[in-house]
Each structure stands twice: as C-alpha cells, then as structure tokens.
C-alpha cells in the first residue's frame, strides 16, 4: 500500500559533520533505508566531510557501524549494505580553513544534483557557505541543508540569513525542522484539506481550544552545556511547536507548493498576539533520591533556564479570534509523546438533561509514539438505566492501518533528504518564517530575563509544575493526560 517509491535524480550529497552524532544516528541510516527502498540511484555519491582523518575505508566502517547500530531497512536484501557502502566517500575538510576543499571539489561531478548538508554546529554555517562558493563547489542549482538551531534570537537568525543569502538564493536553502518531515504532520494537512468533514468546523465558532504537547522523558543528557544556553522555549517552542501551530491554524493554501504553504504559515506567526506573562508557566526538573536534577545536569547550581514551558497564546484573525492555543513541552516528564488535540465546543444545548453528562469531541493527532489519530465521539452508554452519555474513541493507528508496510514509511529525515534532492522546499522553513518566529519568542525570553524569573521546580516523572496545571484550570479547562 505504501511503497510507491519514485527514484530521485542522480546526486552527490556532501555531509559536513559526517562523523558526528546526527549523521550517524539519523542521516546515514536514513539514506541507507532509502537505498534499500530503491529510491537512491545506483551511482549516487554520499561524501562525508569532517575534520578527522578517516579516508574512504575508515568512513565506510563508521557508516556501516552506524547503520547496524541505528537501524537499516528491514526488507533489505543480503549484500545491499556492501553495495551502499560503495557509494560512500570521505574527504577531510576544515570548515574554517583551506584544507581539503580542492580535493572535495575533485570528487564532485558536474552533471548531477549537488547537495551540501551542514550537520555541524551553527558557528560553522557561514564559513561553509563562503567556502562552497569561494572554491567553486556549489553552483546556482546546488542546495544547502541547514540544521537547527537556526539562530539564538531574532538578531542572530537575521545575521545567519544574511550570511547564507550572500552565497545562496532562498530557493537553494533548506532549513530543516524534522517535525515537518513526520508522516502525521503531513497527514494533518491531508485530514484538514482533503476532507470536507473537518474544515467547516475548524474555527473559533466550533473549536473551544487547541492543545499542543511535546513531552519527553529524557533529561538534557550530554547536551547540558548547549541546552542551558537555550532552554525549552528556544530549543522546542520557537521551532517545532511553532511549526505544528502553523499547520493546525493556517488557512488552506491554494496549492500544495512550497511558497503557497509557507506564505500561509507565515501569516499565522504574524497574527500571533504577544504572550501575557501571566499566561506562561516555566519549570525545571528537580533532583530526587534516585537522580540529579536539571541544575546538576547542566553544572550550574543557579541556572535559571527552563526545562519545561507551557503557555497560552492567541491568533488574532477571523478564523481564530477568541480560541486559545495551549502549548506545552518539557523534559523528564511522566511520558514521552507528541500530540495535537483539537477540543471542540460542547453541543449548545443538551436534550438529554444534566444527568446524562456533557461531552465534547476531541480530535487528537499523535506524532509519537504510535503515530495516528483519535476522534472522541459521544454515544449512549450501553444498557438500560436511561440516557447517559459516554465518549468512545474512533482510533486510527497508522501502524495498524498500514500493517507490514508501516515499517517502510520513511522517517522524517529520510523524507526530508529526498525532498532536498527533488528540490521541493514545502516541508522546510523559509527565512522570513524563522525570523517571524523569533520576533514572537524574543520578548517572552527578554521578559523572563528582565524580571529575573526563576523557573518553578517540578518532580521528574510528573506532568510539569503546578503553574502549568493552573494555567488551564483558571480557564476551566484541563490538559490531556501525558501517558506514562
Ligand atoms: P557532533 O559534535 O556529534 O558532530 C560535529 C561534526 O562536525 C563532527 O563530524 C566534526 O568532525 C565536524 N566538525 C567540527 N568542526 C569542524 C570543522 N572546523 N571542519 C569540519 N568539520 C568539523 O554534532 P551533532 O550532534 O552531529 O550535531 C550537528 C548539528 O546538528 C548541530 O548544529 C546540532 O545542533 C544539530 N542537531 C543535532 C541533533 C542530534 O540529534 N545530534 C539533532 C538536531 C540538530
């Protein structure tokens, strides 16, 4: 059912930072899965470029090990990995210096699509862009893929956009937010714009509120130093949650084409009201007898960075005026899961009387785990005893619906890399979108800094700080449960 694979054009893909964590965990295994699916041409080249001295054979070993550790294609035939590894090359390159660039240039072919993946820290993006042009590796059709974080605030994001724009046109720049590559996120657009059922109800008249939750059970791990300089607002809300908010709230684009979709997303961000600071809850996970807390993890006993944030925001346009959007994300919570819930209003009048109970329909879109959708529908509680109402979920798990084929649905990185080769920017952020998102985020963070606000502690394994519960409670609403 799923596997209609359309092979992409022949390409040379250079992965700067090819030996790094992201390349080993996501990019290279993802490419291998696409190779197994028959999407990657036999003579495509994937070239690792990083600072260490690996050589082709050394890098092939790294790639093989990464694929074995982080998952290759389940339906791959024997020998496919060896064939794939023949596509792999390596050049030692210094992003900040001149070493390796001419050798890399020699390995690129002139008659194929050329893509350059910047899987390195953001401080190197400018240097890479400059050298790709300076040494003549990139042409006007080449693509560059830029990882998050895209800037630290509006000023740095603008500077980065400006630097990239000196060397590449906007149509060549692919800013990755891997949330946009998730199957369910695209399904969200299919559900909204492919059905008559929901769109007439998709507005302030029928929707009571919308909740977006991205909950993690993990702590800051080895990224403590980086994380403490960003926090949940910068690391998650400004990009991932904002993108989900855009897709749920945007007007139907005229076509499913890059600029048509991105224009509509941008309008949503620009219509967001500034957030009242009473409508924000910030938290930091605390230590308990089993484990250290956030401050120990980041090595700063006085850190004021949040590992959790929840907020209420409003979109001032005709469709959404008066409908609150509640966003929440955090680390060390009781469960791992990403979900968007559209909570519809109660029926205006209950013909069954108060004792039957009042219920509202909820459309919940699960991004992880177990991607799928649930629609809570109110029915009569079975059996005698009068009319009592009950919510039953109409549950669609993609894994169940697709059966064995579910394993072959490309993951977010696989899909996005293939989109780069195809030259399709629909699922990538445009420069103005990123800047608009920072323009909304910056005043929130500046407000915390100005007031010297300290995040409230919350227990590891909980649903976040009490303030987050109160944020909903004050409005007579409640968060959906984060399942353990
Ligand atoms: P990493 O530290 O594991 O790897 C960095 C890579 O960059 C290495 O291959 C290293 O050799 C190379 N490098 C460093 N300096 C260089 C130089 N001067 N010249 C050439 N190569 C150089 O980092 P990572 O975790 O793979 O992250 C890479 C980027 O992806 C970062 O921007 C990060 O924020 C982003 N990112 C990572 C993840 C993840 O899960 N790791 C997730 C999302 C975004």
For the structure shown, list the relevant keywords.
484 residues; 14 helices; 15 strands; globular; binds nicotinamide-adenine-dinucleotide
Brief digest:
By secondary structure, the protein is an alpha/beta fold. It is built from 14 helices and 15 strands.
Question: Could you explain how this protein is built, in words?
Answer:
By secondary structure, the chain is α/β, with parallel strands linked by helices. It has 14 helices and 15 strands. The protein has helices at 21-36, 55-70, 80-85, 101-107, 125-134, 154-167, 183-194, 224-249, 258-270, 294-298, 398-402, 412-422, 431-451, 466-473, and strands spanning 11-16, 45-50, 88-92, 113-118, 143-146, 173-175, 207-215, 280-285, 308-313, 325-330, 337-344, 362-368, 372-380, 389-397, 456-458. It has a nine-stranded mixed beta sheet with strand order 14-13-12-11-7-10-9-8-15, sandwiched between helices. Strands 3-2-1-4-5-6 form a six-stranded parallel beta sheet. The longest helix is centred in the middle third of the chain and has 26 residues, at 224-249. The chain starts with 10 loop residues before the first strand and ends in an 11-residue tail after the last helix. 41% of the residues are buried. The model has no long low-confidence stretch (mean pLDDT 93). Bound molecules: nicotinamide-adenine-dinucleotide. Nicotinamide-adenine-dinucleotide binds at residues 16-23, 50-52, 93-96, 119-122, 124, 147-149. Nicotinamide-adenine-dinucleotide (NAD) binds at residues 16-23, 50-52, 93-96, 119-122, 124, 147-149.
């Amino acid at each position: 059912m799923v596997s209609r694979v359309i092979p992409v054009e022949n390409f040379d893909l250079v992965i700067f930072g090819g030996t790094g964590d992201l390349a080993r965990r996501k990019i290279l295994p993802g490419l291998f899965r696409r190779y197994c699916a028959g999407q990657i041409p036999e003579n495509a080249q994937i070239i690792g470029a990083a600072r260490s001295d690996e050589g082709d054979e050394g890098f092939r070993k790294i790639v093989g090990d990464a694929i074995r550790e982080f998952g290759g294609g389940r339906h791959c035939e024997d020998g496919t990995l060896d064939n794939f590894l023949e596509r792999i090359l390596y050049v030692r390159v210094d992003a900040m210096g001149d070493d390796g660039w001419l050798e890399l240039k020699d390995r690129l072919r002139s008659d194929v699509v050329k893509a350059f993946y910047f899987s390195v820290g953001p401080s190197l993006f400018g240097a890479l862009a400059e050298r790709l042009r300076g040494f003549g590796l990139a042409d006007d059709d080449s693509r560059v893929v830029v990882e998050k974080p895209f800037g630290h605030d509006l000023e740095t994001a603008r500077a980065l956009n400006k630097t990239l724009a000196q060397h590449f046109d906007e149509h060549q720049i692919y800013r990755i937010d891997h949330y946009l590559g998730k199957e369910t996120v695209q399904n969200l657009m299919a559900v909204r714009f492919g059905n008559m059922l929901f769109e007439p109800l998709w507005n302030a008249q029928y929707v009571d509120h919308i909740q977006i939750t991205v909950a993690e059970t993990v702590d800051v791990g080895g990224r403590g130093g980086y994380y403490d300089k960003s926090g949940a607002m910068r690391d998650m809300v400004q990009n991932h949650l904002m993108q989900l908010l855009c897709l749920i709230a945007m007007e139907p684009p005229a076509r499913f084409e890059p600029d048509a979709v991105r224009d509509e997303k941008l309008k949503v961000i620009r219509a967001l009201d500034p957030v009242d600071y009473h409508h924000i809850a910030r938290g930091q996970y605390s230590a308990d007898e089993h484990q250290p807390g956030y401050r120990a993890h980041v090595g700063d006993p006085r850190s004021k960075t949040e590992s959790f944030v929840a907020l209420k925001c409003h979109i001032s346009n005709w469709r959404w005026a008066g409908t609150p959007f509640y966003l929440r994300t955090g680390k060390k919570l009781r469960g791992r899961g990403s979900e968007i819930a559209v909570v519809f209003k109660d029926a205006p009048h209950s013909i069954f009387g108060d004792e039957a109970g009042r219920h509202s329909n909820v459309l919940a879109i699960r991004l992880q785990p177990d991607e799928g959708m649930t629609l809570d529908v109110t029915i009569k509680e079975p059996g005698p005893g009068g009319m009592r109402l009950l919510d039953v979920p109409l549950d669609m798990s993609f894994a169940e619906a697709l059966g064995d084929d579910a394993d072959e649905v490309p993951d977010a990185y696989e899909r996005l890399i293939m989109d780069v080769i195809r030259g399709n920017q629909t699922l990538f952020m445009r420069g103005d979108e990123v800047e608009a998102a920072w323009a909304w985020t910056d005043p929130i963070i500046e407000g915390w800094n100005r007031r010297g606000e300290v995040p409230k502690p919350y227990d590891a394994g909980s649903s976040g700080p009490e303030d987050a519960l109160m944020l909903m409670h004050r409005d007579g609403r409640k968060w959906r449960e984060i399942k353990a």
